[in-house]
Design brief:
Number of domains: 2
CATH superfamily of the largest domain: von Willebrand factor, type A domain
Number of strands: 13
Distance between the termini: 62 Å
Largest sheet: 6 strands, mixed
Strand order of the largest sheet: 5-4-3-6-7-12
CATH architecture of the largest domain: 3-Layer(aba) Sandwich
Helix content: 25-40%
Order of helices and strands: EHHHEEHEEHHEEEEEEHEHEH
């Protein structure tokens, strides 16, 4: 058992002693014939119970692992028009799956620093490294594709140069922190020619995964305007005049995974995020001078049963007082 007193011990002792003095050395009780001994003992019990409750006694609970991840986590997100193809789950846009997976990964790696890098025709750092999960959630929630009228085709490896720079800078500034990369996209190459490879030097990526979204049947995409407003109309295939469909390219995604030195996972609605984070070496990247791995024990508080006892005594005393008052009135009524 352990104690977490609400005030310093000396102060608590003085308060309890003062309460006992008030109970037993009541001048009015001596001048008015005194109170019953049972009342004194009940009030004494109430003072003692309050004093013990103020000590906040507790028992150790289950051991809780609060190890913080000493990691830099980079989310590299495809924001071309195909990210809103409606073949995720119940005809939702793929970006819905991307958002859920980013949130789930962040929850699985508490204490990490997160960065969001998006790419379409160009690459942008939407969120510099931060531990602020609220900022991460805000950026994730506002992930939208490039405006349809500006789309001219893009490469699935567009983010290579920017990602390499970010990883090199992190390696120089905080070499003790792990660097984890999650590439989230559908692998659809819309720029002319084969995509150039990712050229990340060995050792800069310490884990992560390429996460693939979409189906082989493909999904339609609603057009977006310059202000990221949906037009309600679907993008048309100029060759057929029909609604264009985006199809996942898992072979391309596997190639990207090999280039980054991570695994590939095809994502489906409702799938657990565990396989995407299980391979991260938290035994190696689980502590630092900045974020320490630690074990804490939850406590089972015991003060509240004591307060219930005080409440029961208070009800008892209130009832006794009302009974005494009623008896006094009856005596006055029958007295001449």
């Amino acid at each position: 058992m352990s104690f977490l007193p609400i005030v310093a011990w000396p102060v608590l002792v003085v308060l309890v002693l003062a309460g006992l003095v008030a109970v037993w050395w009541n001048p009015s009780s001596r001048t008015m014939g005194g109170e019953s001994r049972p009342t004194h003992w009940r009030l004494t019990a109430a003072v003692v119970l309050l004093g013990v409750a103020a000590l906040r006694p507790g028992l150790p609970g289950d051991e809780v692992d609060t190890t913080a991840a000493n990691l830099n986590v980079y989310f590299v997100v495809d924001t071309t028009s195909s990210i809103i193809a409606e073949d995720w789950g119940d005809e939702q846009p793929r970006v819905a799956g991307v958002r859920r997976d980013i949130d789930a990964i962040a929850a699985a790696l508490p204490g990490a620093r997160y960065s969001v890098v998006t790419f379409d025709q160009s690459t942008r750092v939407r969120l510099p490294l931060t531990t602020d999960t609220t900022a991460l959630a805000s950026v994730t929630e506002t992930l939208l594709p490039e405006p349809t009228e500006y789309s001219r085709g893009s490469s699935v490896t567009e983010a290579n140069d920017r990602l390499r720079t970010l990883l090199e800078q992190a390696s120089q500034r905080t070499p003790d922190r792990g660097r984890v990369v999650y590439y989230l996209g559908d692998g659809e190459q819309t720029a002319q020619g084969e995509p150039p490879p990712f050229t990340i030097p060995a050792g800069l990526v310490n884990g992560g995964a390429v996460l693939g979204y979409g189906t082989t049947e493909g999904g339609r995409m609603k057009a977006t305007r310059a202000r990221f407003e949906s037009s309600g109309e679907y993008i048309q295939d100029p060759a057929t005049g029909e609604d264009a469909r985006s199809v996942i390219s898992e072979s391309t995604l596997r190639t990207i995974a090999d280039q980054l030195g991570v695994g590939y996972l095809h994502r489906e609605a409702g799938a657990d995020i565990g396989p995407a984070v299980d391979g991260i070496d938290l035994a190696r990247y689980g502590s630092s001078t900045e974020i320490e791995a630690r074990k804490v024990r939850s406590r089972h508080e015991l003060y509240w049963p004591l307060l219930l006892g005080v409440g029961a005594i208070a009800v008892w005393e209130a009832g006794a007082g009302l009974a005494a008052l009623a008896q006094t009135r009856r005596r006055k009524e029958v007295s001449p």
